[in-house]
Structures are given as structure tokens and as C-alpha cells.
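writing this on my phone so excuse typos. first protein, seq and then structure
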Amino acid sequence: MDTQKVVLKWNKQELAFDLQPTQTVSELKSLIYEQTHILPDRQKLMGLKLKTSGVITNTTTIDELNLSAKIMLMGTPEESITELNSSKPVQPDLSEGQEEEQQDTTWIEDPDTVPLDKREEVRMKLERRVNTYQGKILNEPRPGKKLLVLDIDYTLFDHRSAAETGVELMRPYLHEFLTTAYEHYDIGIWSATSMKWIESKMKLLGIEGISQGRTTNTEHNYKIVFYMDSGAMISVYTKEFGLQDVKPLPVIWEKYPTLYSAKNTIMFDDVSRNFLLNPLNGLKIRPFKRAHFTRTTDRELFHLTQYLVMIAQHDDLSKLDHRRWEQMLERQQFIERRKTN
């Protein structure tokens, strides 16, 4: 496979990278970091454009970029940031009643000591997503309902195994799970893929007709409010995980400020890093893989249906420790059994 050359101008230097067409912007940023020590989240690539219309994300491939224009790299290496922070002047002694003068100096904060949702670059990315991302609206939200946001791959079905029909790869109890959840929650789908693939997978699972408001089976009486794809994700850098694309729930909350918030939203995903920005609203589901061997024993959605019903009356879902959902469910069931005996 032929490589493509990416040339960047940084200060008075010229940086050149030979990349495969299938490599991503995220991988490019990692290579830039190796040469410049500019953290990926601090890198600003000016003049980077797509061959077609759309928004550049960290999952955008090199082949999708228009590399004929000049690309400028802006950013500060970590060594320089450390040096600037260490030179911060001592605060004046106010013991003699002196008034502290206002300092017109902006200190560069260590990204590992600032919460992700408080970082300036993260807030800017969130603002851009809120202002530019549309997603696909399928049905009207229902006031008074909580919100359930679901991943697709390995959460609702096994997308790697081969099969003749989608039913063979569908996670057990899927439609029953969605039907019961819909009584208490609006349901949204958020996948780290393209909208085209989301629509294709929903059709494969038999959800497409239902999600468009045309309930094709009276047993499965539910609707999907929206689809969101990788275009709504943002990249964040942490010392533990490096550069990661995450699913920031504030993009949804800002779109529906009177309906959804941290208090009434829960997200299921088999990759916990996807809710790094909103960990109190995330529940890590066990991945559904090797469907042909596990579909007779997998009961994850069956038990999670009970959990969703159990917590539906809570005023603030973010105060619950969703990591312990199984223990919480077992305890509740134990209490109910004692009441009936």
C-alpha cells in the first residue's frame, strides 16, 4: 500500500511523516508528540481539511484529508510548560495590609492535575460539538422520562463473528430489554462508527422499523429517539490511557437542556474509557463476543433490565455506583424476597 506524505510547519521547522492511507489523525498526533513533545490535546493543526464536507475527528483517516494545502502546527512542548510553571513568582506578602495587585498572567496548567471536564481545550471541543453536531433524530423525546444511551458493538450484538442473519449475532433478550426500558427511559444509540454503519446495524438487528416510529411487532413496543456516531465524540488525553476518543454526554444534555442531565442519564458501553468525561453516568457492560458459543448463556441484558427498572425512581442516577449494579440488584431482590416470606 502506497504511503502518503504529511508535511507540517512548526515554528521554523518542517516535520514530515509518511503514513498509510488508513492511519488516522489520532495516530498522526501520536507521531507528532514523539517528535515535538506537544501533547495531542495541545496540538492545533491549522489548515487541515477534508476532501469532502464534514468534520475532522481523531478517527478521520489520512486518505480522507486534502493534503495539498499548507498545514501549520501550533502547540507548546511539555518541557516548556513545566519551565513556565516553575518560574511562577512568589505571591507578595500582604501582612502589612498591602492590597494584592491583579496579575495579567495566565499560567499553563498541568493537564494531569486538572479534571477533564474543566480543561479549557475540552470545554472548547464540547462547545464545537454542541454547536455543529446534529446526529439523526428519529422520534420526539418524552418529557419526564430518563435517558438510556446505548453502544452497539459488543453491547447489543457481536459485530465480529460471521453469521447468515443478524439474529444469530444479536445479544439475547435485546428486544425485551428495549421494550421494558422504554417504559421508563427514552433510548438513544451512540456508536463510535459512522452513521451509515449505525443504520445498517440497526436494520440487521430488526430495530430500524421500530426506531422510525413504525412498530412492526406489538411485542416490541419501543422507539429510539436518536442515533449519534463518531462525529459527536471528542479526543481527550490522560496520563493513564493516552489520547482517547470519548463519548461526552454533555453534547446531549446541551441539546435537550430541559429534558436530560447528569441526574437522569445512564450510558451502557463495553469500553469504560468511552465515558471518561462522565464516569458517574456510565455502566460498563460485559462485552458480547463469540455469539455462537455464548448466546445460550449470556443473560446480561436480562439482569440489566431489572436494574434499570429498579433505579428508574431515583432522583439522581449520578449518585449511584453503577460499577456495583449486580450487588445492588441482588440486595434489592433479597429484600423483596424477605417481604414476601
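second protein below, same order as before
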Amino acid sequence: MKAYMTNGTGDFLTKLAEKHPQIDIHIMSSGAGSLAYYEGVEKKLFVAGRTYEVIVQKGDIKEEGFVAMNNIPVTEEGRPVFEDRFKNRKHEVDQFSGFQAFRLLRPLTGNTYVVFTQWESEVDYDNWVNSDTFKQSHAESPTKPSAYFADNPFLTTYYMKKDDE
């Protein structure tokens, strides 16, 4: 399955979603701007967007919630190790309070994977990140992350944009 995303103004992205009501486009916003995301459809709507392959999927993306995207540049030779690490995780995240959805997204161009998680609230996300379960799941890696990171990972966060916003 493919996933697509692009950045833009909230108004522009909302109008784009309205032009394609048959596609479930999720609009998210942050202090830095807005993002549109959809998956499963083989039709690329975004001219300047990014396309990903969904490697791991848990839960359904909801219309409300908080989204954290860990953007992780991975070296070419590190891709199999990186993906294997996620495929073989115990996935405790989907049992954590407030969890809604998880996606591991492989870029079709470039080297930056996206680890997409959606939560009922930012507090739920913070509780996960500060939990012993999170610390244990990130400590169990047999390979140090720096062995396959091409650059420093970075986090982007969003709130799902409601139709009336």
C-alpha cells in the first residue's frame, strides 16, 4: 500500500480534499503549517508531494487526534536492518493508552523514513515517550541507530484538523 503527503496552507489543502471526496484525505496542522495525508489509493494527487510504501501498519487513522512523525534518514545499506527492526518489534505501542494508529513509511525517493503514530491527545503521546515500555523498546535494538542513520532524525507533530476549523 502507498501513502502520500504534502505540505501547504490549511485552506489550500482543505480545498484539495473537497475536490476529491472519494479519497480519505487527512488534514493536519501545526505551528509551522499544514499537511495532507492519504493512503491506499494508487492515484497521486499531490504535484509536490512525497510518496511512501507502508511497511508496517497498526490501527486506523482517526479524524481527531495528535500525530507524531519521526523523520529518520537511513543509509542505503542500513535500510534492511532498519526495516527488520520495526517488523520484529513487539509493538507494545498499540497496547498503550491513547494509541490510535502506527505506520512505518519507506520513502520511494530520498532516504527519510517516517515513523507515524497517532494518539488521542498530546498527553497520551508524552506518556508513551516517557514510559518504561518506550525506553525498553528503544533499548532492545541489536544495532546502534547511528550505524544506519544517514543524518539526524527529527520530529514533526500535528493536530488533526477538524472540518469546522
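The chain is about 20% helix and 35% strand. thats all i got for now
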